[in-house]
Amino acid sequence: MADSLSTGLVEEKENEKEDKERATKAVNVDLNKKKDEVADTRGFHDKNGGARGQKGNLSDLSLVRFITTELTRGYFLEHNEAKYTERRERVYTCLRIPKELEKLMTFGFFLCLDTFLYVFTLLPLRVILALLRLLTVPCCGLGGSRLLQPAQVCDVLKGFIMVLCYSMMSYVDYSMMYHLIRGQSVIKLYIIYNMLEVADRLFSSFGQDILDALYWTATEPKEKKRAHIGVIPHFLMAVLYVFLHAILIMVQATTLNVAFNSHNKSLLTIMMSNNFVEIKGSVFKKFEKNNLFQMSNSDIKERFTNYILLLIVCLRNMEQFSWNPDHFWVLFPDVVMVITSEVAVDVVKHAFITKFNDISADVYGEYRASLAFDLVSSRQKNAYTDYSDSVSRRMGFIPLPLALLLIRVVTSSVKIQGSLSFMCVLLFYLGMITLKVLNSIVLLGTSCMFVKEAKMEEKLFDPPPSVASSRANSRANRSKNTYTAAPQEPTSDRAGVSLTPGVSPPTEKPEGTSSAIPKSDSDTFLTTPDEDDEDKILNNDMGLEGDGLKHRTPKKDLLEIDRFTICGNRID
């Protein structure tokens, strides 16, 4: 009996061993099959089938086998589909940039042209109407009404500034300046031209503030407390600024004229290469949407100014050659070369900036809608600024100095004698008025279409922001953040930055939702958030809400961004 029991136990153990061995063999077979499949996908072909057991044997390695493996190995791109899809979208974005950028540049060019033509066409007529009102209102006995409306006061001031500055510009000898600059060396002229570009941007940044201060000082209600130095000092400052800025642009145009007339064109080549240096200074910087909007406005202004400078150069050269049409075709290749280099630099710069900062090409449509909103809002009954001043603030383009220089060059280059010449001038003036009116009508219709596509119609009826109230609210919120941050329960935005309930951050439309655009006074449509979300999260984790984030520049709507708002991109 005992022998039978022991024999049964031994048989059961043997059966269990056999089952384990079979299971182990089955697992090994499966593993070997998987290894064979992996080896086949990587290009390993083992003829004898014993390579798996000889991996540890270094004697089997040979140069022929290594070369064979390198020639036959493979890989599958679909294993990282997301990365390659993102790379392809970046390429498509770079290919879309030239088209979208040129749409914005074209729209901005006609905005600048409309503002520039306004100085020559409608501004003189508005000044005449304002002076007639100034003379007729006292004679009619209307003592209770205002002599001039605020807009008419600003027009009269602009007219007086232009007249005084033109009389001062008549004493500047263009020919003497040309020969003085031509006698300098090439390197010195290159340095001078770069200094003039920087000075032009500095003048533009401060000049519009001078003009705005003059307009507000002249039209400020009398019942308010006097907090200024007077209208006459502001007027003299504005006249001095416009005169100096016009002289600066004249030196720029003269330097460009010397470059065109140089024998070997070396100076022109050096000045054109200066545009490509701009790529190095801009491409490898961190840009957000607001910064890119500022730089786009700067490029629009710079391109339009270059066109006017080229026009001045052509006028001066044609005058020297007695208006011979053949000489224009001598200048034409150089003009095309300058314009082509400018366009190429802008395209390359914007393409790589959007690539490195992961900005979509659709952002240029938002920029176009913001510029269109300025034009449409200036036609409202409750408009608080003239459209030309709005363009000046947005782009840094101030038309008064440039128009003054063009008038000075045209009057010195074209001699008007006889009644027939006066008739030609009158017809030319009527043609400019016609061009201005047609351009304004087309721009207004196009701007209304852009605003409607961007769904910004409700913002046209928002009241203008009050500087005093906004400053008071910001100070109150800042003090509330400083002293009552501990007991309040913070809320968090998309990036995780804790915000107190007293501060209303710009709302953002989350991805994947179909909610409508909020109709509130916070201007939430074109708000562009900061891209450094990781830095904000780190500051939040380290408890820097009171110190690090309190002095951070708040998120701004594109409608509140002008050319010189953000300090980091004033001179790009």
TrEMBL record:
Basic and acidic residues composition bias: residue spans: 10-24
Keywords associated with the record: Chondrogenesis, Membrane, Osteogenesis, Transmembrane, Transmembrane helix
Biased composition (Low complexity): 467-481
Residue ranges, annotated region (Disordered): 1-26, 461-551
Residue ranges with Polar residues bias: 512-527
One Pfam family linked to the record: DUF747
Membrane topology summary: Multi-pass membrane protein
Parts of the chain that traverse the membrane: 104-121, 160-181, 235-260, 397-414, 426-451
Entry keyword Acetylation: no
GO cellular component terms given for this protein: ciliary basal body; endoplasmic reticulum membrane
Keyword Transmembrane helix carried by entry: yes
InterPro entries xref list: Tatp1
Family in the record: Belongs to the TAPT1 family.
Protein name, UniProt field: Transmembrane anterior posterior transformation 1b
Organism from which the protein derives: Poecilia latipinna
Taxonomic path: Eukaryota, Metazoa, Chordata, Craniata, Vertebrata
